[in-house]
Write a structure and sequence with these properties.
Helix content: 55-70%
GO molecular function: DNA polymerase binding
Oligomer: single chain
Structural class: mainly alpha
GO biological process, one term: DNA repair
Radius of gyration: 36 Å
Shape: globular
Strand order of the largest sheet: 1-2
Protein name: FA complementation group I
Length: 1080
């Protein structure tokens, strides 16, 4: 049967079933029960496109909707979790390859619904919104929303939310009648959920508009209604919403006019957020409505995510109308230059983008900026300082705050001027009017003279000229202190803007670079004073590093010049900057700050900060420089001891780590090009030829060498911070290696070797190295044998709970030593054992579902079941031998003991689950239990349960010792020590809490073993010894020694009988301690 015909038949069948369920609601509930049962056995058959479509059609009935959506959402999240669980373990991938992805199935339903399945569409829309609302991004308490839209979907909840958006987008594309309903619901949620994150809805709206801007003209009234509420929405939401509907503004005049009307009202609003929203809206309009004759900016177009639609404006509006429209908006924006600092700041940050996208507005914008800066510029050539800083600050009563962000204004002027000189001048033709050209040259000359004058006078100025010397008050508790903090940050910002300006126009002139260094000296003096004051007073702004005004593009240019420029003609001028270690450190630390901002927010300040392509290119350039600097000049060579702060090498390494993380978060698809850009030897390779594993392995080898050098260096030269960073860099890069590749195996072998040969005593480094080892090992094969060897080393290092026994020294890993064995390595080993237990538990659940499947293909299922059972038993067997070592180890009281007891309880609970599985098997089939299960039970009886009871006794003894010690203190200092004693008692109570749970878990295990013995006719209890630990128990050796003492006293001194009997109780209480002392 042809596919389309089959789909029509399925649609008809669904329609008939739905009509029957409408007559009898119980049938609907029976359908849900049936599918839930089937899903337990095999999710593939339970949730196929047909059954999902059927459920969604039934879900239109409100009585069943909640049940059906809960079932579908649970299935989706479980599928995503299973997929994530499998990706992290090679052991699971080999045993249980994932054949089924519920996400793909649901999207297939959307595709199939095009074949006349109209009854499914409403269910699809409701499911999409339900998923997006149930798993939306969470807002931390009192914190900022953690935006994930710019990164990849990592958690199952994020994947479910992204699936909801995909369902709605695809349904929107396929079904025309329901489009207006989807659009209306999305817009309603953007408005009503203003307090919670709405980025996922805005992303969806953006994709909807891109997919059909012309179709949306029919629903333009809904968009214009939304605009009426712009003043009441948070600024982030307004900006996102306007970017999303921007393509619609180009094709619908009514929408554009409605928006302008709303923005005009908002610009005079009393609410600051409303005015900021108006500025954001006007800037967006200026960027996107080109005046005829503006230069093409495709080479540097600002990306607004995936929401851009390149439409030709002139098809809708003539150029004269556009010019008048843009100039009218500029007039409105000029009024904002007298408003609060936040509003002005938005304008200064937005003008550069407007200029670059709409070059015909250059003259108007530059004139606006010129008139603004003239308010603060002092033209007298000998007057210091050159700017009126007091005009930038406003006082209202006791409060002092910033009125004019002068550094941002200068930064805007500097970038606009640079762009104007580079672009407009090159394209100015002969036909330009002389008057206009004279005017343009006028403002350009004005700006250049002004910036040169400010530069010259800023270098001459002393801190006293700004009233900012060391004696100045910088505390935030006084008005003067706040004013001085604002002044300091303004002056530092101005210095940075001028550094970038002078470097760019200097063309490697020695004089200009001396100016750059002079400006940096001013910046650095202030920075040092703020740091010094911050050390004394925690409430100073300088405690947090002020955000740098250098642009990302300039940072990459500066670093390349400082570290990689070998041109003979540049050598003399660059020597000026290279002579200052502080300046080099500053350049690298600004690069680190920029990368950090990009990693956290997906964009940076300054020009092209929101352009992913430009950011990617800058990152590649910065990485090349930092990598060269770190690998060429080791940190040991640097004389960092004389100066405070991190060495340049360490800053480079930190920057590299952040860049590698950022690449994997934001540019995962472009990692091949990134690695290609780092490899200078292979510049001409085709994109398809790039082998990511090989390129990543090459980079890994460079950091491996650095790490080996750290380990082989003298103790005084060992740098813990650098070693930690190197280990984290290696962990990050190892994610780029293909687990099946030879390079991955080599890296794993090297990591094992490092752990075996280096007696590392630094706790954080040890933690990082072992975590890396476990993560790598899990992707290659199960790490249980590794856990056993580490457990043996911990046992040998810490000694046995029975002090008479000398543990055989079998050191596999030198990293396990007296400093690291407990708690560090012990907790890591137990944490990894927990993961193995989770995997085993997951497999046992899968076993149970396979066991309940009675389909025809039983031989295939039987083979799979046997493979799973074998895998589970082998894992548990090896894990038991690791626990066998740990429960005999003299662990210190505290977290290790607590975690081991809990871990043992979990182990017995999972052993019980396995036994229950075999009880079920014995009920349904006549098969005998496998020999390997018998061996596992025997192992648990001989190597674990008796040792567990001994360990419980050991734990109780060390706790009774700490209690008796506390009691002695209590007698000496009753009142003073009361609090300390109660703390000790609470701690003992907390740490002994897991003991009853462990005993219960052991007894449950033995109980089900008895059941299995009866069912299978095999006596499994023969391997179990009688349990001894109870709340009341008789310690035979203790009883014997007490009786002997008692008899001796009786024989020697009969009259003192009463005294000896009264002494028995304390003797008995103290006996375990005595016994241990005697054995010493």
């Amino acid at each position: 049967m042809p596919l389309d015909q089959l789909r029509h038949v399925e649609g008809t069948v669904i329609l008939h079933i739905v009509s029957v369920i409408n007559l009898d609601q119980d049938l609907g509930e029976e359908l849900i029960r049936h599918l839930k049962t089937e899903q337990q056995k095999d999710p593939c058959t339970a949730l196929c496109p047909f059954s999902v479509a059927l459920l969604l059609s039934v879900a239109v009935k409100h009585r069943l909707q909640e049940q059906i959506f809960d079932f579908l959402k649970t299935s989706i999240v479980r599928s995503c979790k299973d997929l994530q669980f499998l990706q992290g373990s090679r052991f699971l991938q080999d045993l249980f390859p994932q054949k089924y992805d519920v996400t793909a199935i649901i999207l297939e339903v959307v595709e199939n619904s095009a074949f006349g399945w109209d009854h499914v569409t409403q269910g699809l829309v409701d499911l999409g919104f339900s998923l997006m609302e149930s798993y939306e991004p969470k807002k931390p308490f009192g914190g900022k929303v953690a935006e994930t839209s710019y990164g990849l979907s990592k958690t199952p909840a994020q994947q479910a939310c992204r699936l909801g958006a995909s369902i709605l987008l695809e349904t929107f594309k396929v079904h025309e009648p329901i489009r207006s309903d989807i659009l209306e619901q999305v817009l309603n949620r953007v408005l009503t959920k203003a307090a919670s994150p709405v980025s996922h809805f805005i992303d969806l709206l953006s994709n909807i508009v891109v997919s059909a801007p012309l179709v949306l003209q029919n629903s333009s009234s809904k968009v214009t209604e939304t605009f009426d509420n712009l003043s009441f929405l948070p600024l982030d939401t307004v900006q996102g919403l306007l970017r999303a509907v921007q393509p619609l503004l180009k094709v619908s005049m009514s929408v554009r006019d409605a928006l302008i009307l709303v923005l005009h009202k908002a610009i005079f609003s009393r609410q600051l957020d409303a005015r900021k929203a108006a500025v954001a809206g006007f800037l967006l309009l200026l960027r996107n409505f080109k005046v005829l004759g503006s230069l093409s900016s495709s080479q540097c177009s600002q990306a607004i995510g995936a929401t851009q639609v390149q439409a030709d404006v002139h098809a809708c509006y003539n150029s004269a109308a556009n010019e008048a429209f843009c100039l009218e908006i500029l007039g409105s924006l000029r009024r904002c230059l007298s408003q609060q600092a936040d509003v002005r700041l938005m304008l200064y940050e937005g003008f550069y983008d407007v200029l670059r996208r709409n070059s015909q507005l250059a003259s108007s914008i530059m004139q606006t900026l010129l008139s603004q800066i003239k308010q603060y510029y002092l033209p007298q050539p000998d007057l210091l300082p050159p700017l009126k800083l007091e005009g930038c600050i406003m006082a209202q009563g006791d409060q002092v705050f910033l009125q004019e962000p002068l550094a941002h204004l200068l930064s805007c002027i500097q970038h606009c001027l640079a762009w104007y000189k580079n672009t407009v001048h090159l394209h100015q033709g002969v036909e330009d009017e002389e008057e206009e050209e004279e005017e343009d040259v006028g403002f350009q000359q004005n700006f250049e003279e002004m910036l040169d004058s400010v530069t010259r006078r800023m270098i001459k100025s002393e801190l006293e000229d700004f009233e900012l010397d060391k004696s100045a008050d910088f505390s935030l508790s006084s008005g003067v202190g706040v004013k001085n903090n604002i002044y300091a940050i303004l002056v530092m910002g101005i210095c940075e803007v001028l550094i970038e300006y002078n470097f760019n126009i200097g063309n490697f002139s020695k004089n200009k670079f001396e100016d750059v260094l002079g400006l940096f000296t001013c910046y650095n003096k202030l920075s040092e004073i703020l740091k010094e004051k911050a050390g004394k007073n925690k409430s100073i702004l300088g405690n947090k590093t002020a955000r740098s005004f250098l642009s990302m593009g300039f940072v990459s240019t500066l670093l390349t010049a400082l570290f990689r420029d070998n041109a003979q003609s540049h050598e003399e001028s660059l020597a000026v900057l290279r002579s200052s270690t502080e300046f080099l450190r500053y350049a690298v630390s600004v690069a680190l700050q920029k990368v950090q901002q990009l990693e956290e927010t997906g964009q940076t300040d300054g020009p092209d900060g929101q352009n992913p392509e430009k950011m990617f290119q800058n990152l590649c350039r910065i990485t090349r420089v930092l990598l060269w600097r770190y690998t060429s000049i080791p940190a040991v060579v640097e004389e960092s001891g004389k100066k405070k702060g991190k060495s340049i090498s360490l800053l480079c390494l930190e920057g590299l780590l952040r860049i590698f993380n950022t690449m994997q978060q934001l540019y995962a698809a472009r990692i091949p090009q990134f690695l290609q850009a780092l490899d200078i030897t292979d510049g001409d390779a085709e994109e398809a030829d790039i082998n990511v594993t090989e390129k990543a392995a090459f980079q890994i080898r460079q950091f491996q060498r650095s790490l080996v050098n750290q380990f082989s260096s003298a103790e005084d030269d060992f740098n813990s911070k650098e070693t930690q960073l190197l280990i984290t860099v290696l962990s990050t890069l190892s994610k780029l290696l293909e687990p099946a590749s030879q390079q991955f195996l080599q890296f794993l072998t090297w990591t094992v070797k490092i752990c075996k040969e280096n007696a590392l005593e630094d706790i954080p480094c040890c933690k990082g190295l072992l975590t890396l080892l476990f993560n790598l090992h899990a992707l290659y094969k199960s790490p249980v044998s590794l856990l056993r060897e580490l457990a043996q080393d911990i046992h040998a290092c810490l000694g046995d709970i029975d002090q008479d026994i000398e543990v055989e020294s079998r050191s596999h890993f030198a990293i396990v030593n007296a400093k690291t064995a407990a708690p560090t390595i012990c907790l890591l080993v137990l944490g990894q054992a927990e993961k193995v237990l989770e995997e085993v538990d997951w497999l046992i659940k899968k076993l149970n579902s396979l066991g309940s499947d009675t389909s025809e293909d039983s031989s295939q299922i039987s083979n799979q079941t046997q493979a799973l059972e074998k895998g589970v038993i082998l894992q548990l067997g090896t894990l038991l031998t690791a626990y066998h070592e740990l429960v005999q180890t003299a662990l210190p009281a505290g977290s290790c003991v607590d975690m081991l007891l809990r871990s043992l309880s979990k182990t017995y609970a999972i052993l019980t689950s396995l036994i229950k599985h075999y009880i079920q098997v014995c009920r349904s089939t006549s098969n005998a239990i496998p020999g390997r299960l018998e061996k596992l039970v025997k192992l648990s009886g001989s190597h674990l349960t008796p040792q567990c009871y001994s360990f419980i006794t050991y734990v109780q003894n060390i706790h009774s010792e700490s209690l008796s010690f506390a009691e002695e203190k209590k007698k000496k200092k009753k009142e003073d020590e009361a609090a300390a004693i109660s703390t000790v008692m609470a701690k003992v109570l907390r740490e002994t809490k897991p003991i009853p749970n462990l005993i219960f878990a052991i007894e449950q295990y033995e109980k089900f073993l008895i059941h299995l013995s009866k069912k299978s006719k095999v006596n499994l209890m023969q391997y179990m010894k009688l349990s001894t630990s109870r709340d009341f128990r008789i310690n035979a050796s203790m009883l014997e020694s007490v009786l002997q003492e008692h008899n001796t006293e009786d024989a020697e001194n009969e009259p003192d009988n009463d005294q000896s009997s009264t002494a028995e109780q304390p003797d008995e209480n103290q006996e375990p301690k005595k016994k241990r002392q005697r054995k010493k």
